[in-house]
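Can't paste images in this forum, so I'm doing it all in text. The chain is below; anyone willing to post the predicted structure tokens underneath?
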Amino acid sequence: MIALQADRLPILDDSIGSATHKKLNVIELGCGCGMVGIGLAQSVPNCNVILTDMPEAEEIATRNISCMNPATGSNATFEALDWEFPPPQSVRNRAFDIILVSECTYNSDTIPALVQTLSTLNKLSPKASVLISTKVRHSSEAMFFELMQKEDFVEASHTKLSLPKDESSQEDPEVVHVYVFQNGQID
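Text version of the structure:
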């Protein structure tokens, strides 16, 4: 398991640390089975996490949610959200502190819709930090960063985390890139 150290992403330390004073509202896009958002809800007290993905992910995500052991005052729920359409009213009616995206930039066909969804959510929650984690697989993923820049997102932080090395392999360990973006319109 990779742990994000606050000294590597200090901007997140402020957001997560504020959960001791108020509820931390988080949305995860493309949650799959929900492990990232569930892990957050199990680790951070006073944290509301909405896991989102296509409707076909709902069964496995809600099953995993039902098995989680949330931190004090924390919870997680699932909402169907297709990036090709506006977010549901239940998502548009909330303000978020953190928008999570984990391993969703590998398919270049979905990147424009993902960035548009991030932009829509950021307009609703302009002070939200956008946390992106990804293993870069091919050069077409650069489109994500180009589109983020066009939508006025500013890279506030970037760190690289090495995955544990397979001792039987001669290859270098894989690297996960973790980015924090902020709205470039905020002073």
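The radius of gyration is 16 Å. The first strand starts at residue 24 and ends at 29.
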